C-alpha cells in the first residue's frame, strides 16, 4: 500500500495532539524534517520526547535534525484493524524502526508489498500529510525493489 | 529483603467465561464470598482491602467502591494498578501492610464483566487506544494490542530462530490445562495446526496466539503466617517477590529482553531459591510469545532457547516445568487486570494439593509472574507450601 492510499483510508484516524514537549517534532514533520530530542549535556538522543533527558535528567535538550535513514528493527503485518478508521487499510505494516542515529520509533512502512518487508531492510523517511497541522513521518525502502 | 512472614489463607473464584447476569461488583462479591468461605472467615474479619481498576466502568476510587459495596471497614485500603502484574502486586502489598502492623487480614479481589459488558470490537478499539500504544507516536500508525506483541515475536524469530509452531505449542498446552479446569472459559482441545490455521491478526500472531476476553473475578485472603496456621486451610506462604520495569511503550525499546529479568532475580534472591527449585511456574500469558520471553528472562532457560523449551510436553502437567496449569489468559479466562490474579489463585490451589485432575505431583514451591503494559512492568512472587 502506498502512503497516499494509507492516508486516504480514514477520516477518523486518531491523529496526534501536540503538546509543549512534542510540538517541535510535529512542526518539523510539517516541514518534512525528522527531528529528535538530544541532550546538550550527555549528548544522547531519546524518544519519545520528554522535558528532561531520561538518561541524565538534564533539561538542556536540543531538537536535532536526523538523517531519516534507518532499518527495520521489527515489523508486523496487520490483518485485523484496531478500529474502523484502519479497516480499509489492511493489510498494512506497523514497524519498529531503528534510526541510523540510534533511537527506535514506531511507524508504518509504505511503498512495498507488506509480505516483502524484512528485518534489517534499509529505510528512508517519507512524510504523509493528514491535516493542516499533522504530517506523519513514515518509512519506505531506501532502495526501490 | 526480609521475609514478610505472610500467607494466603483463602482463595475464591466467581464463575468465569460468559457471565451476563453479573456486574463487575457482583463478580467481585462472588469471588470474595468464595475466598472467605474457603478460609473459614467472615467479612467482618477483613480489615484490609486491595483491588484494581476496572475497564467496564469508571470507579472514582476502586478500593473505596469495592470496600463500601462489600461492607468492609478497612484499616488499610488501596488500589493497585501495575496493569497485568496487579494480581501478584496485591499479594505482596497486602503482605507489606500486615508486616507493618497496619492491618491483619487483607482481602485482595479483582475482576469484571469484560466480555458481556461491551462488544468484542469495542473492547479491541478501547484497548488499542487505551494506553498500551503511546497516544502521539504509536496510535496514529494503527497498532492494535496484539501487533505490539507481534513486534516482539517477529524480532525473537529473527534473533533466535523461534518458530510459529513453537508459539502455537504454548497455546495448545495451556488449552490442555484449561480442559482439566472446570471453571475455565475455553476447554475444547486444540492442535498446533488449529493455531496456525486460525485467523491472522498481526503476523506472526494468529487469534489463538492471543488471550481471550472473559467475565470473571477472583479473590485471595492474605494474613500473617502465624495467624494462617490457625485457620481452616493449609497456608501458602509468600517466600519472595520482585519488581521490574525497563520500558513503558514498545516502539522505542529493545524487544526481546524485559524487566522480568530484574523481577525474577529479586524474587529468587529474596526467597533464597533458584529457577531449578520451582515445581511449576504460573507465567503470564497474554500472548504465546510472552511465555517464551518470560521463561528466558526469569532464568528457566537461556535467552533464545524459550522456543525449544516449550516443546515436547516440557511445560505440560507431568512435564519438567508445568506452566500456567489453570489454562491462563489464553484459555482459562481473561477479565482485564484481574486476569493475572488467577495465576496466583491456581498456584495456591496446586500448593495445597487441591488442583484435581491437573494436580502437579509433589508441588511444594512455585513461581508466579505477572506483567503489564507491553511486557513493560513485572511482578514475580515465589510461593511455598511450607514457611521459609
3D architecture notes:
The complex is a heterodimer of chains A (145) and B (388). Chain A has 145 residues and is mainly beta. Chain A has one domain (3-141). Chain A has helices spanning 3-8, 23-30, and strands at residues 35-39, 61-65, 69-78, 92-99, 104-108, 122-129, 135-141. A 5-stranded antiparallel β-sheet of chain A has the order 5-4-3-6-7. Chain A is globular. Chain B is α/β, with parallel strands linked by helices. Chain B has a domain at 6-117 and 214-228: Thiolase/Chalcone synthase (Peroxisomal Thiolase, Chain A, domain 1, 3-Layer(aba) Sandwich). Chain B is built from 14 helices and 11 strands. The interface between A and B is large, with 40 and 38 residues.
Topology:
The complex is a heterodimer of chains A (145) and B (388).
Chain A: H1 3-8, H2 23-30, E1 35-39, E2 61-65, E3 69-78, E4 92-99, E5 104-108, E6 122-129, E7 135-141
Antiparallel strand pairs in A: 1-2, 3-4, 3-6, 4-5, 6-7
Chain B: E1 6-13, H1 24-39, E2 48-51, H2 62-70, E3 76-79, H3 86-99, E4 105-113, H4 114-117, H5 120-129, H6 145-160, H7 164-179, H8 192-197, E5 200-202, E6 205-206, E7 215-224, H9 225-228, E8 236-245, H10 260-271, E9 280-283, H11 288-297, H12 306-309, H13 328-332, H14 341-352, E10 365-372, E11 377-384
Amino acid at each position: 500500500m502506498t502512503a497516499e492510499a494509507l492516508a486516504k483510508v480514514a477520516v477518523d484516524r486518531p491523529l496526534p495532539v501536540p503538546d509543549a514537549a512534542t510540538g517541535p517534532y510535529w512542526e518539523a514533520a510539517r516541514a518534512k524534517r525528522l527531528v529528535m530530542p538530544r541532550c546538550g549535556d550527555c549528548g544522547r538522543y531519546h524518544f519519545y520526547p520528554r522535558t528532561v533527558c531520561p538518561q541524565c535528567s538534564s533539561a538542556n535538550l536540543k531538537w536535532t535534525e536526523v538523517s531519516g535513514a534507518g532499518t527495520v528493527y521489527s515489523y508486523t503485518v496487520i490483518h485485523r484493524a484496531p478500529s474502523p478508521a484502519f479497516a480499509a487499510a489492511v493489510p498494512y505494516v506497523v514497524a519498529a524502526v531503528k534510526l541510523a542515529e540510534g533511537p527506535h520509533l514506531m511507524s508504518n512502512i509504505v511503498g512495498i508489498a507488506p509480505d516483502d518487508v524484512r528485518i534489517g531492510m534499509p529505510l528512508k523517511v517519507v512524510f504523509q500529510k493528514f491535516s493542516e497541522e499533522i504530517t506523519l513521518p513514515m518509512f519506505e525502502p531506501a532502495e526501490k525493489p | 529483603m526480609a521475609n514478610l512472614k505472610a500467607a494466603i489463607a483463602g482463595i475464591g473464584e466467581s464463575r468465569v467465561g460468559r457471565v451476563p447476569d453479573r456486574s463487575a461488583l457482583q463478580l467481585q462479591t462472588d469471588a470474595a464470598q468464595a475466598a472467605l468461605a474457603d478460609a473459614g472467615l467472615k467479612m467482618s474479619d477483613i480489615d484490609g482491602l486491595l483491588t484494581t481498576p476496572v475497564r467496564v466502568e469508571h470507579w472514582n476510587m476502586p478500593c473505596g467502591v469495592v470496600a463500601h459495596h462489600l461492607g468492609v471497614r478497612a484499616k488499610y485500603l488501596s488500589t493497585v494498578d501495575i496493569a497485568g502484574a496487579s494480581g501478584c502486586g496485591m499479594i505482596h502489598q497486602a503482605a507489606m501492610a500486615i508486616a507493618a502492623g497496619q492491618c491483619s487480614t487483607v482481602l485482595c479481589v479483582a475482576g469484571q464483566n469484560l466480555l458481556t459488558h461491551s462488544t468484542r470490537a469495542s473492547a479491541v478499539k478501547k484497548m488499542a487506544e487505551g494506553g498500551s500504544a503511546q497516544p502521539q507516536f504509536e496510535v496514529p500508525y494503527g497498532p492494535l494490542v496484539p501487533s505490539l506483541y507481534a513486534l516482539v515475536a517477529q524480532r525473537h524469530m529473527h534473533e533466535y530462530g523461534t518458530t510459529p509452531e513453537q508459539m502455537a505449542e504454548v497455546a495448545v498446552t495451556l488449552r490442555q490445562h484449561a480442559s482439566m479446569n472446570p471453571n475455565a472459559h475455553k476447554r475444547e482441545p486444540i492442535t498446533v495446526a488449529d493455531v496456525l490455521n486460525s485467523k491472522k491478526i498481526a503476523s506472526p500472531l494468529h487469534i489463538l496466539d492471543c488471550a481471550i476476553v472473559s467475565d470473571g473475578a477472583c479473590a485471595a485472603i492474605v494474613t500473617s503466617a502465624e495467624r494462617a496456621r490457625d485457620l481452616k486451610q493449609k497456608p501458602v506462604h509468600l517466600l519472595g517477590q520482585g519488581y521490574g520495569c525497563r520500558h513503558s511503550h514498545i516502539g522505542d525499546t529493545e524487544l526481546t529482553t524485559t524487566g522480568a529479568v530484574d523481577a525474577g532475580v529479586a524474587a529468587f534472591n529474596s526467597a533464597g531459591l533458584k529457577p531449578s527449585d520451582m515445581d511449576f511456574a504460573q507465567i503470564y500469558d497474554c500472548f504465546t510469545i510472552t511465555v517464551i520471553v518470560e521463561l528466558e528472562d526469569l532464568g528457566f532457560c537461556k535467552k533464545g532457547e524459550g522456543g525449544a523449551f516449550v516443546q515436547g510436553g516440557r511445560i505440560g502437567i507431568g512435564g519438567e516445568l508445568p506452566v500456567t496449569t489453570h489454562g491462563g489468559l489464553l484459555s482459562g479466562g481473561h477479565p482485564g487486570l484481574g486476569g493475572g490474579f488467577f495465576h496466583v489463585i491456581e498456584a495456591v490451589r496446586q500448593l495445597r494439593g487441591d488442583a484435581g485432575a491437573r494436580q502437579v505431583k509433589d508441588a511444594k514451591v512455585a513461581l508466579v509472574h505477572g506483567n503489564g503494559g507491553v511486557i513493560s512492568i513485572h511482578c514475580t512472587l515465589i510461593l511455598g507450601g511450607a514457611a521459609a
